[in-house]
Write a structure and sequence with these properties.
239 residues; mainly alpha; 0% strand
Amino acid sequence: MARQAVIRKRHIEPKANRNGSRMRDFILGWQDGLVNVLGVVLGVATATKSFNVIIIAAIAAAFAESISMAAVAYTSFKAEREFYQSEVDREKREIEDVPWAERKEIEEIYTRFGFRGSLLKKIVEHITSNKRRWLTVMMEQELKIYPAKVSPLNIAVVVGLSAIIGSFIPVVPFLFLPVQTAIWATLIISTIVLFFVGFYKAKTTIGNPWKSGLEMSVIGIIAALAGYAIGTLLGAKFV
């Protein structure tokens, strides 16, 4: 699941919500790793019933998925930071080139907040008397965009490692059980794990925990069914 390179338009968040955002980054990679490898494992296991082939396919899929997710996260957040900087540069130029227009925008912003008369004039004078303060207000109040709190490399590491962790969950049953039994075991375990992770995510961030858990479980089941169906068709045709 590729994360789109978009600017997060949000109010300044309390620390708990920023931690929740990092948790969502972890869950993003973790969920994608688990779901994708679950589909691969079930497809290969259904088609071949070969332990060696299943493990090789799972490991290959796990590392390919983690590298892909890390790369997407890195490039997306890098693009986000570059876009933010381009907007900063544009606002700086406008403050230098057309200060009267930028000053008017500050006045309009605080007029919408309910300030009038001499108080409004004092606020505008105070903000525009310092270019750094002026720029900050324009970025946050006019454009509603904020600088990234973490580096693209940090996000890439979190997403990549979490994808690896999630990827190996569907593999574990095959290490201890016969292939046919492991097929059902990995489906059940993965679905339960996805449900509780979705539940926990909503519990610690925002949303309905039961709905979030159910949504994650359904995603896992769909991936599993797709893998199982493809494995059945290819197994019947080629094996």
